[in-house]
């Protein structure tokens, strides 16, 4: 099973992190983003959007980090990470949606501007960050984990760009419960890190 990967990508890290926590073996295929390899074969053939990560598992190809988390958890991990019961599954999925929307367009986008020079609207990214981080802080004030009272793929989806928010000029100083949650994730057996985390 291959993961087409970029070390500095928080989205790629989501898949690497979950696989490490769940004991799932991945063969990492580094993609030279700066050289445009994500827009060339074989990556562009696997994902016409030319984005990373891409998971290749035999005949199955999955793009999008949230989809990859769902696939890996459903096929290769125990049900605690991604349950089958509809209400519990929905509790996890709502956080996957938050990761793909508010987190990606808030702290994630701010990081793209500051660290990689992307032509995005930094003020909009900061405004989204200022809206979602208090909501995340409130959730983590009342609960140790984002969903179901235990680590799930929701935590793997949301944490990377929140943990890397300082690279986009977004401070977590005012959010002690978010910082404590990141520390809890880092303390999980099998945890792996990435640069700047």
From TrEMBL:
The name this protein carries in UniProt is Glutathione S-transferase
UniProt organism field:
Neptuniibacter pectenicola
Record Gene3D superfamilies: 1.20.1050.10, Glutaredoxin
What superkingdom heads the lineage?
Answer: Bacteria
Q: Where does the GST N-terminal domain lie?
A: 1-80
Membership in a protein family: Belongs to the GST superfamily.
Pfam families assigned to the protein according to its UniProt record, in alphabetical order: GST_C, GST_N
Q: Where is the GST C-terminal domain?
A: 85-197
InterPro entries cross-referenced by the UniProt entry: Glutathione-S-Trfase_C-like, Glutathione-S-Trfase_C_sf, Glutathione_S-Trfase, Glutathione_S-Trfase_N, GST_C, Thioredoxin-like_sf
